[in-house]
Structure formats: C-alpha cells, structure tokens
C-alpha cells in the first residue's frame, strides 16, 4: 500500500518536514511493515519548466523522418532568463529539435533545459543534431518517468492545465511529493486506505486524526432510487454474499473533462495509472476510504440490478475483454440482459463507462469476504477491489464513499446528482467480546493498567463497557478481524507499545540435549574428522589483498585498532587463514596435508559500528543497544578445507577430491549439493566447481587453486580447496535422514561413451542420463573424458558407468539394455549426443 504524504496530511498531523522514512518509522511502532520509499524527484534534477512553442518548422530528413525545429519560450514574455549555464538562452527562448508531432504552435509543453537529469541518468545538454544545436528537450511522460506514453510529448492543455511560463514542473505535476509503501498483512484490510493509515499514524504518534468518512449530508434511501434486489440463494458459511448495496446516479457529466492534475499525481504516486475522470474518481475514493466502487454507464443498464449467484456454465465478458465461464459459487451483479459484473472482482464490458458516457450509476456495496476470495482465485483476477473485499471492508462506509464520488463527479465533471438514492441491506450484528481484566497481562507478560486497556480499545474505535469480571467490547465496523479476546489483547499490546514488553530469556529445561543446529554442526565436523582431515583454527584477521583474492566482492571491514597493519581487516573467507596454516606446516616439512576449519566470516552492511560507545558501569539503554546491534556485520558460518600434496596411497590430490568433500558435507546432513562449472579468481579457470542447493542457491566453491597463486604462496602443485556456507546447509538439512535399504539382488553394469559438443558440461549430461534411465538406475558416474585422436574437432567423448538394480528381482540383460538405451535417447534429445 503506497501512501502519498500530501494525501496523508489531510487526515493526520504529519509534520510538513517529515519524509516517507519518518512516516514509516512511526508506522512500524504499531506493527505495519515498511516496504519502500517512492520519490519521483529522486530520478529527476535540474531545470524542468513550462514552455510555450512559439514556432515550429517541419524539416524532412534523408532517413525518412521529419523533425520539428522549434523555438520555445521558457519565461514569461518580457522577462529574462535567470538560469545560467551552457545552452541556457538569456532571453528565455530555446531552440529545440523534437521528433514528436502531437503539438502545434502556441501549445504549452514541458521543457527540460540543459543541466536537467531525467530517469536513467539521462543528462540534458546542448547537442548538434539534424543540422541544429538543440538546447533542451520537450519531454514525454515516459521520459519524465511519470507514465508509459511515448507516442508524443506532454501537452499541458490536454491535462486541463494553463500554467505561467517558467513554472517549475516539480510542483505542477506533484513530482515533489513522496510516498511511503507499507506491507499490509491479511488481517488488517482497513490499512488498505489513507483513512486507515492516518488512523494508525495517529495511534503511533498520539496526534489528532480527522476521519474522512464523515460527510455532512448523506441522503438516505427513499425508495425512489434505481431498483436493486439482493437474491442470494446459496450463501457461503451461512453468510449472504452481499448485505449492503448503495446506488447513486449522477447525470449529464462532461465525458471530455480530463482528471485534475492533483488527482492524477496522487494516483500515480499511489501506483495507479490515470485512465479517465470517472475511473480516476472511483480509484481515488477507494484509496481514500477503503471502499471499492464500480461505475456503470446508466444508459446501458437494462432493468433492475439483481445481486445473485451464477448458474453453472453462465458466461460474462469482463472489462479485460475476456469471456469467462462462471461457477455457481460466483456472486454476480446482473440486470435484465444477464450478468454485468462479478461482484467485488471485475465489472462486465457491456455496461462499461466510456468516453461517451453521460449518466453514471455508482455502486458501493459490501460483499462477503470468502465469496470474493474464491471468485478472485477461480478466475485468476486479482484487483485492488478484490484485495480489499476479501480482507474485509467497513460496512458503514458504503453510503459515504458513494456520496464522496457523487460530489467529485458534480465538482469535476459538471454532473447533476439525482436526488433519489438506493441503500438496501441489513447491517451484520457486531460481536460482543468478553475480556477478563487479567487476561492481557497473562498473555503478554506485562501488567496493563485499566486506563491503558480502556484507552487502547477506545482508540481503535471500540465500544468498551466495564463489568465485574473485566470488559465487554464491541469492535468498530472497520475491524472485522477482531473476533476474540486474543485479538483484543494483541491490539492492547500494539498500541501501548511492543517496546514496553520485557525480554525474558527462557530457562533451558534439563535433559533436552543439543539444538538442531548444534547436532548438525557436530555431525559435520565429525564427518570431516572421520575422513582423515585435521581441524585447525586461524585468526579472523587478514590482509586486504587476501580478502580480494579469496573473499566476496562486497568489500571488507577495516579494523579500527588492528594487531598489525598487515592484517588489518576482518576475513570475508575462511581460506586465507587456513592456507596460512598450511604454508606454516609445509615450511616445517609436512608436505601432505588435509586441513579443515569452521568459523564466521564478516560481511559489511549498510550501518557499520557506532559513533557512541556506552560508558562502563551501567547498562546501556535500549536505544544504544539497538544502535550497537545495527552496526554488527553479517556473520555467516563457513566450512573450508585445504588438501595439499598426496593422500595416504601416494596419489596427488585433485579437484575431484575437493568436490567429494562438498558432497560429503551434504550427505551427512541429508542435503543434495549440486556441482556445476564455476569461476573464482583464486581457483584454476578450468578446474573450478560451483556448489549450489537444488533450488539454485549458491553455497560455495571447490576445485584446484590457481597455478599463479600456488606458485606465489609456495604451495605443492595442484593444491585444492573447498569452502561452503554451513548456515545454508543447516537450513536446508533434513531433520531425519532415512537410510535407503540395500537390495540383495545383483547389479547389472553397462557403460556408455557419448560424443557431445566440447562446451557441454559433463554434469549436465550426467543428470540427463540419470533422469532418462528411469527407476532401475542405481548409480551413474563419469570415468573418462577424451578429446584426442579420432574425436572430431569441437567434440569430446564422455564415458559413463551405469549401474542398474531392482529391489524385487534380478534384472535381465534386456531390461538393463532398455534402460541404457532410454538414457542415451534422452541425452541425444537434450544435447545431440551420439554413441561413440
């Protein structure tokens, strides 16, 4: 939900100097999550003003285009230009080349002068083009970042504007405004409106709230308005699909009147595209009050409006021009011609308001949440209206929203309101919730006073009655989510302040053992030790060069008071310290090494450290502690290993051994580690593996260190290493690892050698063979990669060993061969592989 600040200030006491960040900081206090800040001016700078086309000369070009050589005045006639800089004309008349053709002499347009910067860092400066020096640009809405129209430039008269020449466009088009975007949870549908957010801001700041849903005169239904009936024969959960329907008519509107710029600007900042004045008014009222509206062309209606359930198979063509087949659960708006809208989701095309509409019927209804949600999902039709209806809309605001739309149509479109209105339905009974006096304290862990409880419940709009056991509370009509005493308790805690709830560390009960992560960490360390590796610990302080070589590209954290300038940074990889340990041991004669280490690395964040160090001898305040924690860098837990020299059989370690260690880490935790070709500045360019989870998340690297690095560090030839993000492994680990039973039936082995393009990764081909062979395949492994004599240029031969076995029988040679042939066929289809 985007909240333009100028709009919010109409109903809440937001300081004039407050930014979107300031507003979100207040709203966070009452449980609304901040999402983003939207400031059009962030992408714009420099002089962007109103100009008038004095002359326009069309000049055909050799490339078939016709350009306009324009003289544009950007200051009032008789005034001089106050701006200075290259290309700024002192008399206020700019020569500009323009390729658009939707304007004529005398039109007022938007001119970006030299020195202006448009979205995408597009800088305006004088430049020679088509034989002229163009000192500026006449802008389109897309170039300004305020729309998608690039078929022509913005002609201000089409927007209903006639500003003075030289007027800054920032204020004229609302580009100086800003919006705070928050995430609205499903239980707080009232926050999908400026009305709801203004109320929450008042709660957070203790300031005044002006409710926009208080119009001085809303006419009641007199029975002479447009006829409407609610006939819901199949209510869901016993609730009628519609329990209120307000209809108002405004006649003789001017369909050619453009939407006022203030409305367009606010809607645009709220994320809504301007379409036409009636549509913009319906969206504006919905955003302001939270009540979705639907406008019908009254002249296209045939007979009374009837709200009913659909007949299975009934059809409707919606506003998106798609024909939809309806279900008996769908709630419809109909007239004598049939369905004219899916209630609360989308209107029908037959009664759509168009550029020729003169008479408008306004619908403001209240629909049942479950019914709307099911129809929205069934037809895959998410809309701003359904988003609000399925979360709950204020039953009592329908007539006020309709009147607000009537007033805007009369004021802006010159319409005449029909004095007769329609308002049918029955207000649902408000729940009466019993809240024991001691219940909030027992649930939250803080002693709330009677004054705090009563004030919080009244602030949210509830009616509170004190009784002997506690309170009887009737929630306000805009809070259908409040149904139980736990809901009320949450509201009390939220408005009194989450920060007042004490933090109490639980006492660990005896005999429960290690936590899940502790168990996984021990299992991982034990597996590496059992594999013959020796665990070591190194300092977390490294040089900047080491971080740049082995770490990430996210920068390094410099220590304020390092032990030595050489090691003045916190590590962003465990490998530098581990390699230093290996170097020290090699220098002392230990040529064959298998080392591993676990520990945290330190990745910089936006806020690093704090300028305020708390004094000794007293507990820092919560604010100081928060600032300290905000300055603590991210510290993922890593696992790394280095293998140098030979193994116990005298075989030299290679990159495959490093990959096997990564797979070992995955096996002991029940996580599949996906191996693919990778790149890393510290590793050999052709012998580096990228390590990922099945969902694609990259968790590490393995392979042979770069030959130049090995020579520089004086390490044994082909020293290999692996580093993994252990936190990611722990998060993906299975809680219980179930061992697969071993079949007692014999295996059938077959080999296959395939010719493929040299760039095809062996791992990708192996995966295709595995999936193609089917359930009988127990294991597949690459045992040969040949590119020598007899192999065509650009090709390679990859040989795989396939092992087949069944759980319930001895496989025949034919069954194994059939599975092998299926695997080869899959490889041929995927990579054009050919049997060698």
UniProtKB/TrEMBL annotation:
Name of the protein: Phenylalanine--tRNA ligase beta subunit
This protein's GO CC annotations: phenylalanine-tRNA ligase complex
Catalytic reaction annotation: tRNA(Phe) + L-phenylalanine + ATP = L-phenylalanyl-tRNA(Phe) + AMP + diphosphate + H(+)
Cofactor note: Binds 2 magnesium ions per tetramer.
Domain FDX-ACB: 743-836
Keywords recorded for this protein, A-Z: Aminoacyl-tRNA synthetase, ATP-binding, Cytoplasm, Ligase, Magnesium, Metal-binding, Nucleotide-binding, Protein biosynthesis, RNA-binding, tRNA-binding
Record CDD domains: PheRS_beta_core, tRNA_bind_bactPheRS
Oligomer and partners: Tetramer of two alpha and two beta subunits.
Subcellular location, record wording: Cytoplasm
Positions of the TRNA-binding domain: 42-170
Source organism phylogeny: Bacteria, Bacillati, Actinomycetota, Actinomycetes, Micrococcales
Chief location: cytoplasm
EC identifiers of the protein: 6.1.1.20
Organism, scientific name: Psychromicrobium lacuslunae
Top-level class of the enzyme under EC nomenclature: ligase
InterPro entries: aa-tRNA-synth_II/BPL/LPL, B3/B4_tRNA-bd, DNA-bd_dom_put_sf, Fdx_antiC-bd, Fdx_antiC-bd_sf, NA-bd_OB-fold, Phe-tRNA-ligase_IIc_bsu, Phe-tRNA-ligase_IIc_bsu_bact
SMART domains listed in its UniProt record: B3_4, B5, FDX-ACB
Ranges for domain B5: 428-503
Gene Ontology MF: a single term: ATP binding
Pfam families recorded: B3_4, B5, FDX-ACB, tRNA_synthFbeta
Cofactor: Mg(2+)
Family note: Belongs to the phenylalanyl-tRNA synthetase beta subunit family. Type 1 subfamily.
Record-listed Mg(2+) binding positions: 481, 487, 490-491
NCBIfam families the UniProt entry points to: pheT_bact (TIGR00472)
